[in-house]
Amino acid sequence: MRFHMKSGSDDNDIVAATATAEHIRKFVFTSSHAAERLEIKIPELLQGAYSFYTWPCAPVLAHFLWERRQTLAGKRILELGSGTALPGILAAKCNAQVVLTDNCILPKSLAHIRKSCLANQLQPGVDIDVVGLSWGLLLNSVFRLPPLDLIIAADCFYDPSVFEDIIVSVAFLLERNCGAKFIFTYQERSADWSIEALLKKWKLQALPINMDDIGKESGVDVLEFMGGHTIHLLEITQSENSATINTI
């Protein structure tokens, strides 16, 4: 199921537009077991907003997905807070059906996502979807989302003021998509920040995912992407005893 969101700019114009501070960052994914290679080009605005830069969590999640690429084909995947959309674009290039999302009140961020898609020969509305959402709010766009198998995000827990909004959105989506999972990377910025109480409140459970082998297939040391930061990879699902969510 695909749907089209109207954009105020023509997609070809988005690709043609450049800014002085913009550059193209290339991410290469390979396999030591087979002659497979995928190069993803990400336009970045170094002087732009947070969403115009590829933060360390994104390549870590992208390599995690790449090493499971055989399982991605045909999967229905939603990326929350896509930013430059590296993980979601990789999933789409591995034949997943992907919906990329970012804040619905930030049209420039959504335009930048479309630009990233076009830089990788993915036509928004045809090969991949780009949708504006608002964490914690049940807008029409949430109800128009297709069925999902997997929700992903890279570094969406960057500010405690949005933690519950994210958890509310995830809880709602998992409730509507039985068996779906939320897999995300996050950068540890403070030992005082926690989502444990929010997970309990919204009847969710989290499990850490072992990161030791991420990047090995491509011969990549993910510590280089981390740049000295501590990054975690987790999976969130509904608690086994969760009840239906009546109020969001």
TrEMBL record:
InterPro entries named in the record: Methyltransf_16, SAM-dependent_MTases_sf
Single GO biological process annotation from the record: regulation of gene expression
SUPFAM superfamilies, A to Z: S-adenosyl-L-methionine-dependent methyltransferases
Cellular compartments per GO CC: cytoplasm; nucleus
Chief location bin: cytoplasm
Localization (cell): Cytoplasm; Nucleus
One Gene Ontology term of the molecular function aspect: methyltransferase activity
Alphabetized UniProt keyword annotations: Chromatin regulator, Cytoplasm, Developmental protein, Methyltransferase, Nucleus, S-adenosyl-L-methionine, Transferase
Family: Belongs to the methyltransferase superfamily. METTL23 family.
Assembly behavior: Interacts with HSPA5, HSP90B1, TUBULIN, UGGT1 and UGGT2. Interacts with TET3. Interacts with STPG4.
Function noted in UniProt: Histone methyltransferase that dimethylates histone H3 at 'Arg-17', forming asymmetric dimethylarginine (H3R17me2a), leading to activate transcription via chromatin remodeling. Maternal factor involved in epigenetic chromatin reprogramming of the paternal genome in the zygote: mediates H3R17me2a, promoting histone H3.3 incorporation in the male pronucleus, leading to TET3 recruitment and subsequent DNA demethylation.
UniProt name for this protein: Histone-arginine methyltransferase METTL23
Organism: Drosophila pseudoobscura pseudoobscura (Fruit fly)
